[in-house]
Amino acid sequence: MTESAPDASTRQTLYLARHGRTALNAAGRLRGLADPPLDETGLAEAARLGEALAREAARPGRQPIVLVLSSPLQRAVSTASAIAAAVGAPHRADERFNDRDYGPWTGHLKSDVVAEFGSVDAAPGVEPTSTVLARALPALDALRAAGETVVVVTHDAVIRPLLLSLNPTLADLTVPTASWADLTPVDAGWKVESFDNTPT
Which CDD domains match (predicted)? Predict the structure, then answer.
């Protein structure tokens, strides 16, 4: 992050973005800590997402993006690298934004796991959502305290519980690939200004 103080007349924003598509996404399989690359569609999505976030950050009253953080998995790293190039900011991986660990069900069809156990949450060996939040929420709090505008590229299994913890009324979340949520700081944490935004 930069050493200079942010401009008080501009709005600090956290762009919470999902990575582009992979072959496992397209097949409806649980990704978790598997590390597939972006597919052709995902690479195009990442490029469009970078362009869209560059436009967002250039809107009047917005701060420039000073840093792009991501999960260390290559689908997030590749997406974050495209965003970093588009906005002219450095990129760094952060383990706290890693995907949820689906344990033995990694790579399985999500529909099969739900059919067998009733939900992914009920499948044995799956990382609890509470554990995901315990690592990701403090990372968001640290970004708020810094007062600068940052992009975080992570996964739907991280974004969904984060947004619901900030605003439990967001029942219609879909979190498509290469989408983002727009968060602004409030005293108690973050306010979700918009979500499920996709490049146009």
Answer: HP_PGM_like
